[in-house]
Automatic annotation (TrEMBL), chain A:
<feature type="domain" description="4Fe-4S ferredoxin-type">
    <location>
        <begin position="293"/>
        <end position="321"/>
    </location>
</feature>
<dbReference type="Pfam" id="PF17179">
    <property type="entry name" value="Fer4_22"/>
</dbReference>
<keyword id="KW-0479">Metal-binding</keyword>
<dbReference type="GO" id="GO:0051536">
    <property type="term" value="F:iron-sulfur cluster binding"/>
</dbReference>
<dbReference type="InterPro" id="IPR009051">
    <property type="entry name" value="Helical_ferredxn"/>
</dbReference>
<keyword id="KW-0408">Iron</keyword>
<dbReference type="InterPro" id="IPR017896">
    <property type="entry name" value="4Fe4S_Fe-S-bd"/>
</dbReference>
<dbReference type="InterPro" id="IPR014259">
    <property type="entry name" value="Sulphite_reductase_A"/>
</dbReference>
<keyword id="KW-0411">Iron-sulfur</keyword>
UniProtKB/TrEMBL annotation, chain B:
<keyword id="KW-0560">Oxidoreductase</keyword>
<dbReference type="InterPro" id="IPR006067">
    <property type="entry name" value="NO2/SO3_Rdtase_4Fe4S_dom"/>
</dbReference>
<dbReference type="GO" id="GO:0000103">
    <property type="term" value="P:sulfate assimilation"/>
</dbReference>
<dbReference type="InterPro" id="IPR017900">
    <property type="entry name" value="4Fe4S_Fe_S_CS"/>
</dbReference>
<dbReference type="InterPro" id="IPR017896">
    <property type="entry name" value="4Fe4S_Fe-S-bd"/>
</dbReference>
<dbReference type="InterPro" id="IPR006066">
    <property type="entry name" value="NO2/SO3_Rdtase_FeS/sirohaem_BS"/>
</dbReference>
<dbReference type="GO" id="GO:0020037">
    <property type="term" value="F:heme binding"/>
</dbReference>
<dbReference type="GO" id="GO:0009337">
    <property type="term" value="C:sulfite reductase complex (NADPH)"/>
</dbReference>
<dbReference type="InterPro" id="IPR045854">
    <property type="entry name" value="NO2/SO3_Rdtase_4Fe4S_sf"/>
</dbReference>
Amino acid sequence: MGYQTTAAKMNTIFADLSKDYLIYAPKRYVGDGTFVHIDTIRYGEITDLSEIEFAEKSNYSFKEVLLPISETLFYFTENEMKEADAPKKGAIVFLRSCDLHGLKRMDTIYLENGAVDTYYKRLRDNTKFILMGCESSFENCFCVSMGTQTSDDYDAYLKVTGETVLVDSHWDALDAALAGATPASVIPDSVTANETVVTIPETVPQTLFDDPFWEDYGNRCIACGRCNFVCPTCTCFTMQDIFYTDNGKAGERRRVWASCHIDGYTDMAGGHAFRNDKGQRMRFKVLHKVNDYKRRFGTHMCIGCGRCDDVCPEYISFANCINKLNTLVNDTAKEEN
Amino acid sequence: MLDLNTKKIKKNAYRITKVRGETASRIRVPGGLLTAELLPLIQNIAQTYGNGKIHLTTRQGFEIPGIKYGDIDTVNALLQPIIEKLEINQEIPGKGYTSAGTRNVSACIGSNVCPFATYNTTNFAKRMEKEIFPNDLHFKVAFTGCANDCIKTRMHDFGIIGMTEPQYEKERCMGCQACVKACKKKSVDALSVENYRIVRNTEKCVGCGECVINCPTRAWTRSPETYYRLVIMGRTGKRNPRLAEDFLVWATEDAIIKIVKNTYSFVTNYIDRDAPGGKEHIGYIIDRTGFEEFKKWAMDGVELDSRTIVKNPVYWSGIHYV
Ligand code: HEM
Ligand code: HEM
Ligand code: SF4
Ligand code: SF4
Ligand code: SF4
Ligand code: SF4
Ligand code: SF4
């Protein structure tokens, strides 16, 4: 159902919902950026619509709500262990269309790729998603190339213009709360074109894995992992077992985000690491995003949010890498014919 | 025939040069940042009244050589829009700079451009200029954005080095140790790892912010407040060149302004009246009175943040030629 209502009304509805839900949205953290006087836009709890940053793309994605950067899974002593409690409340998450497609990628990895991940599932099952429209494309977005520029897979869509709020609800509880609001036909804002256009090669031959193409990235990438951490579809984690210092026999196991660009990702028991070259790390990431994943799950992993290009301190463009790779694949095919 | 009062000319920020009959005009640029529209005005003075050349001074001003003493009034009139645009305190409008002792307050590029900067050096430099100019006592003040100290504050009477107090949000840390490596390789090795999380040695930390810059998840962020290290009484020169030593660490902007202003009273009280040209470096005055006496004057009415560390006593070394 579509409605027109007011910001004040929506804020009371959210205040009511906050008894059962924590509400997460992209927020501006003034001065928390990498450099002085630069803000960060990332997810945080809100209590009022005015706290939401609608005008700009968030630097970090919503994924930290469902996949915390650092999450304690269980506590252990000598003979016993206890799983960490799930949060008492569910979550409501504001996010954009491409990110909603990113959610599907996370679901695929954590729910449909072998055993169900119970830690993910218990958060996921209690989360509602509210779509934020895109009136125009942001810098580096290429959602149209990835086909993620629209989505109707939301619990609600919300558009705030001053005091007026347009809502499209797919959620009974919200419909009930909005009973009496003016009905309206609400269609989410979405873009139809981006400045960045990406063409993905259908297949990438194995012979290109060791192509000199990747060497350029080996010289440029500093292995900081920012591109992975801002990415809504990077789902890798690693484990940390902590023994409390006063009592070496009790502790906890945490899982934390991991990045295939950062040293240590491929370390194995005994200390061997099999992907030390940063160009090969770039190759692994890029082909994971637009090649391997699709072969296994049928869609590309990347959803075209462009955050990796926004953040890379070395100005390495993932989007441009795919386009260059496409040219390389085509040229290689021509040579073989 | 020239009949000049050289003292007045020097106080007006013109030099008595080695070339008989020619002076040089010095233009103050507090914080070393100016809008490009002022350059044609400086060019015009140099081409019309100077010898067509402009010297970029060590303290980030301009020096226009080859000006005839007789043209000083005309040049002062041409300097007026520059003085106004750069918001220089002036006692008599249209008469140029009314003192020269307190040198141009210089600053590194700071947060206007530099990724390492912890604050806007130009803005603080301009605020300092407003507070201390036109004072004719010989003071050198410089601002630098971070502990890299690109402006070389340690060769100044007052050097102000920006600091941030890194804030650690442990739940945003996944233990990549980029901060640990940066602090070890580029700074003072103040970070260590305990149970995959980071511990900051607050005694060692110099507030450079490398950890903040290198953290990929915003686990490290800057403190909302900017802090400063105030280093004092560095100098070059003939007798005892030396680096400035730490006086305050984790100090606030207001405390630093107050201390510098207090020092003008200290100098006025203790300056050697027989010093040649009436000028004596503050550092040598402190050498004479002792640090304790300086500190008494400098700290008068200064309100310190609870974080501020005051070094006491302060000792200087350097090279002694006398
Ligand atoms: C050529 C021999 C082996 C290779 C290449 C290999 C490789 C790996 C890799 C890549 C992982 C995943 C590491 C991670 O995700 O962090 C792993 C995990 C593991 N390997 Fe091996 N492995 C080998 C032999 C063995 C042997 C002989 C054993 C036991 C006797 C073993 C026991 C394990 C266990 C228990 C884990 C899981 C560790 C955990 O979940 O923390 N592996 N191995
Ligand atoms: C019990 C034995 C083994 C286990 C459990 C194991 C496990 C794994 C796992 C979990 C990965 C990561 C896959 C991914 O990230 O998608 C991996 C990758 C890899 N493994 Fe193994 N592995 C084993 C044996 C071996 C052996 C014997 C070799 C080589 C002789 C090998 C070479 C590699 C290489 C090169 C990769 C990286 C592939 C790439 O860069 O795309 N592994 N292995
Ligand atoms: S790879 Fe880059 S563009 Fe694609 S989803 Fe991740 S951050 Fe967005
Ligand atoms: S790109 Fe790297 S970090 Fe991201 S999901 Fe793939 S392997 Fe993991
Ligand atoms: S953000 Fe850039 S430099 Fe950092 S790991 Fe990714 S590609 Fe490399
Ligand atoms: S501010 Fe500088 S010295 Fe302090 S912990 Fe961070 S990197 Fe190290
Ligand atoms: S750089 Fe950031 S995420 Fe990495 S160890 Fe340091 S605080 Fe943790």
